[in-house]
Amino acid sequence: MLVSKFGGSERYEWTHIYPSIIPEAEYFKSHPEYFALINGKRDPFDLCLGNPELQQVFAQKLIAKAKAIPYQSSFSAEPSDGRGYFCECLLCKALDEPKNTRISGQGSNRVAAFNSILARMVAKEAPWVRVQWLAYSTHTAAPTNVKRLEPNTIIMPAPINAWNDWTKKLLDSSSSNNSLFLKTAREWAALEPSCLMAYEYYEGYGWPGPLPVTRTVADRMRNYRALGIKGIYNETVTSWGPAGLDLYMTAKLMWNPDLDVDKELDLYYMNYYGPGARPMKAYHERLMNALETHKYRIQSGGRGLFLVFTPALVKELGNYMSQAQALVKGQPLYERRLKGVWAGYEFSRRVSEILVLKKKHGIVTNTPAGGSYYQSAEANDAYRALIRWMRTVNTDDAVFDMARKFKDDAAKNIFIQRGENPGASFFSYLAEDLLRNNQMYPNVREEVQLKDF
């Protein structure tokens, strides 16, 4: 979009970078000391951030990248996913002091200290570039061992899991999740990085069905400005069909957070659905209302959305869908577009049926945290059927392709109760949340959650 509007663009890097900067195959045999000391042995699982030689090698790799790609604005120093805190050597432990007691801050001091060293080295040889990392995982909280970050750093707080609830406004003090994100972002902003950005998840890594988040996105973007957040990266893994409206509106809101959302939505309904606009407006508006009035929190990636789709809501949405299908019949352009939205609806309908089966046939099983779930062979079978069905609509058409293809057959791997891998990674959260209720709501009793099913 920047290219078309301004004739150019800026490029940033924020990926988990450790394996590509310090590859195990290149360094582990010759320099095991670059890697984490875990239980008395060097382990390629993580890096030894306190090692001065590693710091030098890492910085030189970033500098070389900066010189090779001079048009890129930043380069990542982000740890591997869930890493950056596992080395037990004295040098690394020294980076942790003083101890950070903030929520998910156990790795923050170490990562900030290491990245600050990198930033100072990079500034000497590549002063035009910035070092970037996420506020995420064990380094989500702001560090307590620095009063100010280096002037060539970019921080990206990630509103994921306990730092996000799509059912509530960002400034709604009744939301402990959103309040925690606000606190975290403000604490990072107080350290004065060169730029504060947000790493968003307005997509369905935990839910490849409908994502009725347009008004949630508008609320976030308008309030982010007051936090000093100057940019947003939105991770997307799903296809256009089930979440097309919300991905489109996210892009529009990134251009203009003050957009007249209702007016833009009406334009979308009219232009995208043509003769099916009226029932599809009712479909989408009902979904957005269901999200806003939902009793339980819904987290990033759509985790928790499965509980929104009660049999009553599914029936109502199905009526709107049938009306729209009748109105666009014989018009290939609109039929094709509607097929993508239908795929998301059908996915949700099947998920709703799984929950009905759990309640009808399941045995109440307590969780360690004091909650419960219905253990049901019938529901597990229906989940496997759901995965197989998803493959039938996976046709490489971006309008209704519901999920990326996988090398193995995920449906053969869905044996949650045995503790096996739940299949393709794209569905791992959904399987855990839907079948076992042990991550999203571990202290909630499913007999209560499923009263409307």
**Head-to-tail CA distance between termini:** 44 Å
Sequence stretches where pLDDT stays below 50 over 5 or more residues: 405-425
Q: In which order are the strands of the major sheet placed?
A: 3-4-5-6-7
Distinct helical segment count: 16
Bin the strand percentage: 5-15%
- Supply Rg: 24 Å
Main sheet characteristics? 5 strands, parallel
CATH topology of the domain at 10-268: TIM Barrel
Topology as H/E string? HHHEEHEHHEEHEHEHHHHHEEHHH
Q: Quick check: average pLDDT?
A: 91
Helix content: 40-55%
Task: State the oligomer.
Answer: single chain
Per CATH, the class of the domain at 10-268 reads Alpha Beta
Number of strands: 9
Give your account of this protein's structure.
- With 453 residues, this protein is α/β, with parallel strands linked by helices.
- The protein has a domain at 10-268: TIM Barrel (Alpha-Beta Barrel).
- It is built from 16 helices and 9 strands.
- The strands form 3 sheets. It has a 5-stranded parallel sheet. Strands 1-2 form a two-stranded antiparallel ribbon. Strands 8-9 form a two-stranded antiparallel ribbon.
- Helix 8 links the parallel strand 6 and strand 7 (229-234).
- Mean pLDDT is 91; it is low at 405-425.
SSE layout and pairing:
Elements: H1 2-6, H2 18-21, H3 24-27, E1 35-38, E2 41-47, H4 52-68, E3 74-76, H5 90-95, H6 108-125, E4 130-135, E5 153-157, H7 176-189, E6 195-200, H8 214-227, E7 229-234, H9 240-255, H10 261-273, H11 277-292, H12 311-328, H13 332-361, E8 363-366, E9 372-375, H14 377-392, H15 428-436, H16 446-449
Parallel strand pairs: 3-4, 4-5, 5-6, 6-7
Antiparallel strand pairs: 1-2, 8-9
Helix pairs in contact: 4-6, 8-9, 9-13, 10-11, 11-12, 12-13, 13-14
